């Protein structure tokens, strides 16, 4: 038998942010690293999420030994339900990562059939010809690992997402020694996170936000609404500690933050003192200066708890004049308008809004390493070959330049989705191209409707059709002009009852919304879409693509 | 006759960025300041521009004495074609401002009927009971003025857009003395631009970009593509001077930058040495290091010259490996994805892209005054009443706080669109509300098609219908799957010939696009929309709302 070579095939994340997925193949064995999703560009109307095309894995399904996860963010695990429904292979992840995966698979009723295998940082395990050593790294999420994959031709190190936080709030330090050891052993190829390749210097540690947040807690007289990414476990922990220090009770409002906190508590990452956490229904029982409300929705998502509170449409989260709303997060590009819309609503309620606009001090830090951390990693592990991962083309290119500037790797390779990189002990060459692409999935963006979030492929469009409710709203009065019209394609055009009832649903949704909501077309579209989806699913057992069109008259 | 009072009624721009328009009424006379447009939020599908609802002016049409413009940016003049077609009143503006207005009205075939009256900074003119003194200010555009409006109850000063540039590249200084004089005379009310109220300090002058741009010109070995807002006359001038200094010829590529430069040259704002400017067709005749190409499209607009060059689809602007593309502009929120898409395309062509991401030095400055300039203006003119203009609600609120912090105004008033503020010598009170709102206009976004840009009101939708071409694209191959389908509403459903021909148009547009364009859905939608619009207009003399829907399979 000829000496076999290693193949490295990125299926997603090299040429875009999100949907990270990479295959390593040696002979007839394939190991997959991560299975992420991406949120779509606005051009893809009606699409909720995008996942990588895994034709390559499906064509070679008998070879796929498993999927190894670096951590629990959506861009690393969010594609799992779709991928597992096509290809049911074992999934390896740390305890916390698997807790997120479980919740996700349960939502999609895939949990019973899934094989989830827990891995431990520092504990090697075997997958076919690969021996995988997870190495603890620090990031905005907890229990994250890099993967040192020992292959017959050498060690491939995939960093996953990381920053080098020298004082991690969870007490689990970044394992510098393990990386230094790898450097001594010799690393064949380093695949490194490109997210912050544009940022000079070092990324501040998670604890760097404490002084400024402490000031804000100290200076606030009324309620504090604290919003961060629901997976920012460190940040949630810090908020709880500050609330406790300043004599405030903590209420959790919003499904995602509630969920995430529950997992973090179960696994011991957060251990709030007895009595600190109250039920949202108890908010009214406490004085405003005794409350800190952790609330979902930093990105202005129309159906999030914060968006609803901003238009005074949340049962428990009431925003009163003089309350403070603290957004301890960044603006993900593309979400600006939604976020500013929420901020404007909050300002109209006379809330004080503190967000990361550069003028409010260090209230948020990134979870990704900056240039010096990227250089440090390269110097620590001294790879022969270097391949940037996670980023748009320009980030990968910048990262190539950065790696070259260190003078460490023998060769730096700009790989894109679908490229096949073939490696042996001495060489790394692009040798081909496999099918890759983006698969659009019409999930349900209404977070409340768990039972409805069955993943479907856009390919079913021909089957289930297109459903376009057209609503004319009088901008002056906020009233509906005439009846909503419904245009369909490939579905229900011949069913006047269904169309009439669907129209009634739209009218009812509009009527039951507040005036402030009706002026917020993002919210209205989401509500109409959710209500229609449930109705059509129930009455016609179909899942058409629903695209509400709102016209201002 | 009872003593009459002054009414101040914002019709747009107080609660949003854009569509600035404000009415001043005294007795039976109304003066209007500015008539801007706004670009729509993405929720408003198929809408190109948004203009203020001017019902209030139409109801009182016999009282409207004229529209006075502060300067020529779209958010101050872009609504004119629509407003003048409803209400043909005289328009007052400076020479440069009127040159922009003329072009705009000509496009919409309204120029012949329009009465345009040139005003001069420092030269008072009368409009009914109002005596208006234009005062020269500095901004990113040239020939901009504040308006000091002498009314029977006192002076109302509207700043328009401004920064205090102490060394304006056009040699026309900010008229500090005139503002100081007003302060001595006593100003009843100051209305001030809120755009940069969040920025501490002073905004750098326009010339502050020169050192860094000079460095870049000096260090660049191949072609320089220089892109800025087409109305940034100062920036265009600076780019030309640097090109001249570094021995590069200048080619202007893109209709808007060409247009703008022509006006600036005609009016003496730009005076390039003989032979500096070459025709785009001559680009090929010069060595790369002898060329600077001024190109439209800093915001990633899909049909702009830069976007087309980025996908190698521009006749004259060819981007070769090693060329430098300099974006001397900011990212307008909401345009991030489009801009990054263009940057990614450029990077794939191995161009060096320099944009204002915080790491490239001072390559762009804002045209709006920061906090200290806003405070300085308040201190200079010492108004009795202060009213912030131009901004989302949160900016107006911040500006109220900033004005209060100066201790100068007796009263600070947060006014929103539609509020009626009634003033006399001693008091300012909100006394009512008039109808305001946003009117959506389905213009044509394809900048090339001048003859097609007749403004129409969305109210015609019932008449002209909705036209939805649905195209399924195979993401892997970029090929169209099956035939495009066309769904219509209220239009042409009974005309199989028209639908078949429209389908052919879509197929042809797709076929004639490069693979790179086909992967850029923003570009494809714009092209399909433009081609169909021309076809339907010509063959059916209708103007339906056209919304291409692209589905990835």
Automatic annotation (TrEMBL), chains A, B:
Catalytic residues (UniProt): 193, 368
Chain residues that bind Zn(2+) 2: 390
Domain of life: Bacteria
Residue sites binding substrate per the record: 364-368
CDD domains: RNaseJ_MBL-fold
EC number: 3.1.-.-
GO cellular component, one term: cytoplasm
InterPro entries, sorted: Metallo-B-lactamas, RibonucZ/Hydroxyglut_hydro, RMMBL, RNase_J, RNase_J_2, RNase_J_b_CASP, RNase_J_bac, RNase_J_C
GO molecular function: 5'-3' RNA exonuclease activity; RNA binding; RNA endonuclease activity; zinc ion binding
Note describing how the cofactor binds: Binds 2 Zn(2+) ions per subunit. It is not clear if Zn(2+) or Mg(2+) is physiologically important.
Sites where the protein binds Ca(2+): 46, 48, 442
Annotated compartments: Cytoplasm
Residues reported to bind Zn(2+) 1: 71, 73, 75-76, 139, 161
Keywords of the record: Calcium, Cytoplasm, Endonuclease, Exonuclease, Hydrolase, Metal-binding, Nuclease, RNA-binding, rRNA processing, Zinc
Stretches assigned to the Metallo-beta-lactamase domain: 18-213
One GO process term, biological-process aspect: rRNA processing
Cofactor(s) needed for function: Zn(2+); Ca(2+)
Assembly: Homodimer, may be a subunit of the RNA degradosome.
Described function: An RNase that has 5'-3' exonuclease and possibly endonuclease activity. Involved in maturation of rRNA and in some organisms also mRNA maturation and/or decay.
Family label: Belongs to the metallo-beta-lactamase superfamily. RNA-metabolizing metallo-beta-lactamase-like family. Bacterial RNase J subfamily.
HAMAP family in the cross-refs: RNase_J_bact
Protein name from the UniProt record: Ribonuclease J
């Amino acid at each position: 038998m000829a000496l076999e070579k290693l193949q490295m095939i990125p299926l997603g994340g090299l040429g875009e942010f999100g949907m990270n997925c990479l295959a390593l193949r040696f002979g007839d064995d394939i190991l997959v690293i991560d299975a992420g999703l991406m949120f779509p560009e606005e051009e893809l109307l009606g699409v909720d999420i995008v996942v990588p095309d895994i034709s390559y894995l499906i064509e070679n399904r008998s070879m796929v030994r498993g999927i190894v996860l670096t951590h629990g963010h959506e861009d690393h695990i969010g594609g799992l339900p779709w991928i597992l429904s096509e290809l049911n292979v074992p999934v390896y992840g740390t305890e916390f990562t698997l807790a997120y995966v479980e919740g996700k698979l349960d939502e999609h009723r895939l949990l019973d059939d899934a094989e989830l295998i827990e891995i431990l940082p520092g504990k090697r395990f075997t997958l076919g010809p690969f021996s995988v050593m997870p190495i603890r790294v620090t990031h905005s999420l907890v229990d994250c690992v890099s993967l040192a994959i020992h292959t017959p031709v050498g060690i491939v190190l995939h960093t996953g997402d990381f920053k080098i936080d020298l004082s991690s709030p969870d007490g689990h330090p970044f394992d510098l020694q393990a990386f230094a050891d790898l450097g001594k052993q010799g690393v064949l190829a380093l695949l490194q996170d490109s997210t912050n390749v544009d940022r000079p210097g070092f990324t501040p540690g998670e604890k760097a936000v404490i002084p400024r947040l402490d000031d804000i807690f100290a200076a606030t007289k009324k309620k504090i609404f604290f919003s961060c990414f629901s997976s920012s476990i460190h940040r949630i922990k810090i908020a709880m500690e500050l609330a406790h220090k300043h004599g405030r009770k903590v209420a959790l409002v919003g499904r995602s933050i509630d969920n995430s906190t529950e997992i973090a508590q179960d696994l011991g990452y957060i251990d709030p003192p007895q009595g600190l956490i109250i039920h949202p229904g108890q908010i009214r029982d406490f004085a405003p200066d005794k409350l800190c409300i952790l609330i979902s929705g930093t990105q202005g998502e129309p159906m999030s708890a914060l968006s609803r509170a901003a238009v005074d449409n949340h049962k428990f989260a009431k925003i009163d004049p003089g309350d403070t709303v603290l957004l301890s997060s960044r603006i993900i590009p593309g979400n600006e308008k939604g976020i500013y819309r929420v901020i404007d609503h909050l300002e109209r309620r006379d809330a004080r809004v503190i967000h990361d606009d550069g003028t409010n001090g260090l209230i948020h830090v990134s979870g990704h390493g900056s240039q010096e951390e990227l250089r440090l990693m390269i110097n620590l592990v001294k790879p022969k070959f270097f391949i940037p991962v996670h980023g748009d083309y320009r980030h990968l290119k910048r990262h190539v330049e950065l790696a070259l500037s260190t003078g460490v790797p023998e060769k730096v390779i700009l790989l894109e989705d679908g490229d096949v990189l073939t490696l042996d002990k001495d060489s790394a060459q692009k040798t081909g191209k496999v099918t890759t692409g983006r698969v659009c999935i019409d999930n349900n963006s209404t977070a409340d409707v768990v039972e409805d979030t069955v993943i479907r492929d856009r390919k079913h469009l021909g089957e289930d059709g297109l459903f376009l409710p057209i609503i004319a709203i009088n901008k002056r009065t906020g009233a509906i002009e005439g009846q909503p019209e419904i245009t369909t394609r490939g579905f229900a055009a011949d069913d006047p009852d269904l169309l009439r009832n669907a129209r009634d649903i739209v009218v009812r949704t509009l009527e039951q919304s507040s005036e402030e909501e009706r002026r917020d077309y993002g919210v209205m579209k989401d509500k109409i879409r959710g209500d229609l989806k449930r109705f059509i699913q129930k009455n016609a057992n179909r899942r058409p693509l629903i695209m509400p069109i709102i016209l201002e008259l």
